[in-house]
Amino acid sequence: MRRFLLLYATQRGQAKAIAEEISEKAVTYGFSADLHCISESDKYDLKTETAPLVMVVSTTGNGDPPDTARKFVKAIKDKTLPPDFLAHLRYGLLGLGDSEYTYFCNGGKVIDKRLQELGAQRFYDTGHADDCVGLELVVEPWINGLWAALEKHFLSNRGREDTSETLTMASHASRDAVTPELLHVESQVGLLKLDDSGGKAAKVLEQNAVNSNQSSTLIVDFEASLTHSVPPLSQASLNIPSLPPEYLEVHLEEALGQEESHASVSLVDPVFHVPVSKAVQLTTNDAIKTTLLIELDISKTDFSYQPGDAFNVICPNSDSEVQFLLQRLQLADRREHHVAVTIKADTRKKGAALPQHVPERCSLQFLLTWCLEIRAVPKKAFLRALADHTGDSAERRRLQELCSRQGAADYTRFVREAGACLSDLLRAFPSCQPPLGLLLEHLPKLQPRPYSCASSSLFHPGKLHFIFNIVEFLSNTTEVILRRGVCTGWLATLVESILQPYMCANHVDGKKALAPKISISPRTTNSFHLPNDPSVPIIMVGPGAGVAPFIGFLQHREKLQEQYPGGHFGATWLFFGCRHKERDYLFRDELRHFLKCGVLTHLEVSFSRDVAVGEEEGPAKYVQDSLQRHSKQVAGVLLRDSGYVYVCGDAKNMAKDVHDALVEIISRETGVEKLEAMKTLATLKEEKRYLQDIW
After folding, report:
1. C-beta of residue 537 within 8 angstroms of C-beta of residue 531
2. pLDDT attached to residue 95
3. DSSP codes of every residue in 465-511
4. 66: helix, coil or strand?
5. What are the pLDDT digits (tens) for 211-252?
6. What sign does the dihedral 322-324-330-333 (CA atoms) show?
7. Whole-angstrom Cα distance, residue 252 to residue 337?
C-alpha cells in the first residue's frame, strides 16, 4: 500500500477528527496514512521523509497555531535552516479557521509559508476551511480531491510502470499542484465505479456539477424545515457519506458507591476548587444584556495571575437537558450506573482509541453532565450514523438528506446555522434511538470556558474578578425553547442566592448565604499584558464586557503609581462603548475614579442606542467611530511614541471594525496607501504592540 505521512495540529479536536477521517478513507483508495499528532516529533522526521506529507492545521487565539504545533513551528522557524532544507518534501495542507477573526486560517498559513521557504513543494493546493460558514464546505471537496492528487504524485514518481493509470491521469499532467475543484468530480467517478454499476452515476455527477449553483435555491421554499425537504432535494438521488465504523463498546454496571469529582474530568492544567465570595449585577434590569461580576476567593490556593490573563471555568451541561437525554435514550433508571468503555474487537476503525475525556468508571449522569458537549452541532458523520438507528423510513431519509452532498444547503440552514444539537434532533426524529456508544464516538469533549481576569492581585489580594453577559437565545428547530449559554447560564443560577442587585457593587458584604464553589484552571500564558516599561503609552479598546481586562490594567497601574510616586507613567487611553448610558455603562464609577486620580488620562465612551439631543456632534456611536475622532492622537501613540494598542471583545464585528479603523487612521495620518497601512499594523502585531483578546 502507498504510504503518506498525515499530521494534524489541533486545539479542540477538529483537526484530529478530520485527519482521522482522511486516514480511514485512505484505505478505500489504496493508500496507507501514517497518522500522528504534530507534537509527536519522535514519530516522524521531515528532514528524511520520502513519502508525501498531508497536514490538517487548526488556528487558535488570534491567528496562532494550536498549542500542539508550537514546538513544530519553533523548529521550522529556526533561521539557521538552509533554504533547501525541505526541498525533497511534497505536501498538501488543509487549514482550519474562522473568518470572523482578523487572521483567518493563520495557523495553517504560517506553516504553509515556512515550508515553502524551506524548499518544500505542494503536490496539492492548500485548502482554507471556514468555521463561520461551515468547515465542511471546503473540507469535503478538499478530501475528495486529495486521492487523485496523491495518485498523480505516486504515478509521477513511478514513471510509466502502469500505462493505464498514467493515461487516466493524463488530463492533469501539465499541472504542478492539483486543485480540489478539478479533482472533486474525478474522485467521485472513482467512487461510483466502485459502488455503482452505472445506474446512478449520471444523476450524482449531474447533481455535483450544479450543486454550488443550486445551494441558494434549495432553501428558497418556505416549507422546508429540519424535518421536511422540498423538491428538488426530496426527489434527488442522494450521494451520502459512508457509514463511520462503530468502535466503542459500552456497558452500564451498577455502582458500588464511589463518588466522582469535577477533577475527574481529564485536564492538562491543575484544577482549583474555589468559593465565590461576591456576585454583583452590573446592569439595570431593563438592559438588553445582563452582565454579572463574580469575585472568587483564591487566597487558599497557589493560583496566581496578572492583569490581562485569562482562565478556564469548568462548567457542566444544563441539568434539564441531561435529564431529557436520559429519558429520551431510555436510560433514566440507570443514571447512577458506571460506564465501562472498551474498543470493539471487530471494529474496522483504524487506530481506534478510547476517548481521553471519559473518566474510568464514571456514572452515566456524570458523563453526560461533565464530559460530553451535548450542545455541539452534530457533524454530517453523526447524522449519517443516526440515520442507521432511525426506524421510520421518512425520518431516516431526511437524516440522509441532511448529511448528503445534495442536502448541503439544508444542513447549513437547519442544522449548522440553527445551532441544532443532539436533543433537537432527537425531538425532531422520534424514531431515532441511538446507542450510548454512538454518543461517545461523535460528541466532543465538553470544553471549559475561558474568561478574562477583571482585576489586579495588587488591588484585590487573594481575589479574582471576572465578568460575563448571560447568554440567552431561542432555539426553534422543532419547538421554541429558551436556552442560556452552557457556562453563563450555569453561573447565573449558581450565584442567584448571593447576587447583589445593580448599584450595590461597592458593598463589601454580599447576601449571607453559603458561598457556592466553582472549578477553575489557568490558561496558557499569553502576551496580553501591560508593557514592561510603564512609561510606554497604551490605548485600550473594550466595549461591553470587553472592558474586563482593562479594569485589571488600571487597578494595577493605580497601585504601581502609589508605590512609585515619582515614576514616569505613560498616557492611558480607554475607548469604551455600550448601548445605553443609564443601563449598561459598566464600571462607570470606577472609571471616573481612575480618570480623577490620573491613572486613566483619556476616557472616550460611545453609546450605540442613545439619541443625542441638542448637540451638533453627539457622542460617537461605536468605539471605532471614537477612534476615528481621535485619529491624530491614536496615530501619535502608536507610530511616534511606540505605544501599544489592546483590543478586547467581540470578534465578529467590533474587532474587524476597529482593525479597519486603525488601518484608515494610519493611512490618513501618514499619507500612505491602505495596503502599506495594513503592513504597518501587521508589523505592530509581530512586535506584540497590537494585541487582541477577542471571542
Report:
1. no
2. 96
3. EEEEE--EEEE-SSS-EEEE-HHHHHHHHHTGGGEEPTT-TT-SS--
4. coil
5. 434 433 333 445 899 999 999 999 999 999 888 899 999 999
6. positive
7. 6
